[in-house]
Amino acid sequence: MSVYEFSAKTIRGEEQPLSAYRGHVLLIVNTASRCGFTPQYQELQQLYDEYQNRGFVVLGFPCNQFGGQEPGTEEEIEQFCQLNYGVTFPLFAKVDVNGGSAHPLFQHLKEQAPGALGTKTIKWNFTKFLVDRNGQVVARFAPQTKPSELKEEIEKLL
Hints:
Blueprint: E1 7-9, E2 15-17, E3 25-31, H1 40-51, E4 56-62, H2 74-85, H3 104-112, E5 128-131, E6 137-141, H4 151-157
Parallel strand pairs: 3-4
Antiparallel strand pairs: 1-2, 3-5, 5-6
C-alpha cells in the first residue's frame, strides 16, 4: 500500500487525491501555527524552493491535537503561513493524527514508520514523514529535527 491510495481535503476544501503527487518525493508534516516549532515553516519552504524542480513536495497538514496550537480556521491558517513564512507548498485542511478520528493517511504513516520504541502515535506538531517516489514511507523524523537536517536524506531519493 502506498500514500497514493489516500486523499485529503486541501486548505481550500477541495478533495485532493495524493496520487496527484505520484513520482514525487514527499515530506508530509503535521503543522501548527502557535507552536514552538512553528518557525520550521521557513525551513520547510526553503526545502520546497530548493528541490521542487527535482520532484520534491512538502505537504502540510495542520493539526489542533497538541496543546490546541492550531485553533484557527483553514483561511486563517493559510493566511498566517503565507504572510509570516511565504508558504507556497500545498497545505491541507486540519486533520487529527492520533486517536479514533485520525486521518487514514496518518494511520498509514504511523503504521509504516513507527516512532521511538515502536510507538504508533505522533508525539507533537511537526513530526515529519519522508516518502519516496513510489509512495513508500522511508523515514520518520521527530519534531525537533530541523527540516534543513533532512537534505541528505531527500537528495538520496531524488
